[in-house]
Amino acid sequence: LSLSQQPRHIRTLQTLSTTPKMSQGSPKAPVVAEAHEVDTYHPPKKMFAKHPSKPHLSGLEEYQKLYKESITQPDKFWGRLARELLTWHRDFQTVRSGSLVNGDVAWFLEGEINASYNCVDRHAFADPNRVAIIYEADEPTDGRSVTYGELLREVSRVAHVLKAMGVRKGDTVAIYLPMIPEAVVALMACARIGAIHSVVFAGFSADSLRDRVLDARCKVVITTDEGKRGGKLIGTKKIVDEALKQCPEVKHVLVYKRTGADIPMTPGRDLWWHEEVQKYPNYIPPEPMNSEDPLFLLYTSGSTGKPKGVMHTTGGYLVGAAATGKYVFDIHPGDRYFCGGDVGWITGHTYVVYAPLLLGVTTVVFEGTPAYPNFSRYWDIIEKHGVTQFYVAPTALRLLKRAGDQFVKGDFNKHLRVLGSVGEPIAAEVWKWYFEVVGKEEAQVVDTYWQTETGSHVIAPLAGVTPTKPGSASLPFFGIEPAIIDPVSGEEIHGNDVEGVLAFKQPWPSMARTVWGAHKRYMETYLNVYKGYYFTGDGAGRDHEGFYWIRGRVDDVVNVSGHRLSTAEIEAALIEHPIIAEAAVVGVADELTGQAVNAFVSIKEGHEASDALRKEFILQVRRSIGPFAAPKAVYIVPDLPKTRSGKIMRRILRKVLAGEEDQLGDVTTLSDPSVVGRIIDVVREAR
Ligand code: 6R9
């Protein structure tokens, strides 16, 4: 079978075999063998001593009982939880309909609900002075708090402003904001009037913003004059202006004054937030939405060049957010919860905004970086606010671990019960450092596996309940029925001690319903790869005790510092450069960022490879996508390794970068096998 004839999912095996985990030790030993040797950690006793009451479940047995119910009687299980956790404007009758095969999954039909009512009003009525948001500004001294009462007023006013700008139920609003309380307000204001929010991470370039605004046909954009992060200013409004040059449908831009910078305002189009909100009353009734009405779009990278607008609906998403927040993070009334994620990514949506607000606790909105003004920033925040749950990506932990334990100081652990990890696999040493040095063995580490598309945690321990093993995301959340599939045969592999690709057998409430304007692509990417299953795109193992070990992506997605990037998207950005003839991008293991982007390019006749040119190519990606996608290295090569049918064999490039030239595998299908030697020379010379 030549590579070009193989089914798409066969690439899996090649990619898997280049992940760092698999290439360690004896190549023949099954990977799951490692799992047998690792220690099991039980929820630490001291965690219970700090607990305001006790975890929601009595222990693993209760989890197992409920889990079984969630799989065998999902309607009963989810119907109960949906009514328990949320306030419905109108009750639902049908818990679930549709199937993974048909791609028409729907939850809580006939039900009517409003997300902002559930996140804000309920708590504002019960206890208006309870703190909803602790804003930790970039400068430690600039922060403030927002109570639920204040939040309701501000959300209502902004909802009025949006209506006055012509936003109607079902319209999409683009949000390009840094991590400030107004980002939460903006999401809630959209949800309140039934508008769909589409947050674009404020690190994306003007071109990326433009593409997303156009794809979702947004008529309004919400932004700031500038952003401030790690002591540096970010020209958000300038980027919006640049993007909107090519977005004729955008009628208004609402600008929140963050720094007071002197910025141009386009008359008739741009309006100041602080001026507009003054014009309106501080209450507006929430719009009752059908459970399956869209709540938001969030663009994410896939295996093709064009980002996908992943669509989440209202009822199901909210149930997933509230249920996982409650059980995985063991959230209880009065908790002060801190997730370091950005609202521009799914982690920020579900676990900075929705989960804590649905549960009526205090959420920390952090504008800065873990390194500013110094490496103690997280621990200072945790101490200052008596944080109970902390949630961050391993990339930040690696940075802080490397900076040195002397920065992990202060009496910050007093209330800390849960330490969450998300976005990428966490290495056992980093897990242990998190548990021992940060948590002082008094808090439980929960490694949570999920995706933009899953909406909320799908494989994760329940704090205070599930035993954990460093490096394993442990057991499935309620309603999630994982399957390990053999990527070659496409068959499910039953039993324990198995390895393959990860899929789910049943629909769950918070799963994405479609890709905006591209349902066919949704079906092809997630539901048609293995019929009857949702395909995650990740490789995974299930060990002898049924614990899951996520191995990483098996498609053309790279994970840099927990940011999900598409190699195809970066290649498309490179090709835009007039000198570049062809480009191939691969992810390589990186000590600090997990994976790093490396690019191989061939250049057009009449140009010479140089450092200046390499820099220019890196700049091209920064400009086209955003700084976070910039390649760490660019190799200018005479040609790329291609099959006779013209398919670039990235596997060879990955092997060369890993120094595994002796394991290139079959290169006879290459149209010109001699290019490999020349590529090896370029890489050696560069190092
Ligand atoms: C939440 C989020 C999803 C991809 C996913 C996987 C990787 C996320 C992980 C993890 C190992 C974990 N991933 N959590 N890998 N262990 N605990 O990150 O969403 O940006 O869509 O990325 O991230 O590869 O497929 P998203």
From TrEMBL:
Q: Recorded E.C. number(s)?
A: 6.2.1.1
- Which key words are in the record? ATP-binding, Ligase, Membrane, Nucleotide-binding, Transmembrane, Transmembrane helix
Q: Where is the AMP-binding enzyme C-terminal domain?
A: 569-647
**What's an example GO BP annotation here?**
acetyl-CoA biosynthetic process from acetate
Name the chemical reaction catalysed here.
acetate + ATP + CoA = acetyl-CoA + AMP + diphosphate
Instruction: Provide GO CC annotations from the record.
Output: cytosol
State whether keyword Transmembrane applies: yes
Query: Which top EC class is given?
Result: ligase
Specify the Acetyl-coenzyme A synthetase N-terminal domain's residue ranges.
63-119
Where is each AMP-dependent synthetase/ligase domain found? 121-511
Q: Which GO terms describe its molecular function?
A: acetate-CoA ligase activity; AMP binding; ATP binding
Say which domain of life the source belongs to. Eukaryota
Q: Which family does it belong to?
A: Belongs to the ATP-dependent AMP-binding enzyme family.
Q: What is the protein named?
A: Acetyl-coenzyme A synthetase
Which organism does this sequence originate in? Chaetomium thermophilum (strain DSM 1495 / CBS 144.50 / IMI 039719) (Thermochaetoides thermophila)
Which classification does the entry list for the species? Eukaryota, Fungi, Dikarya, Ascomycota, Pezizomycotina
Range covered out of full length: 346 to 1032 of 1034
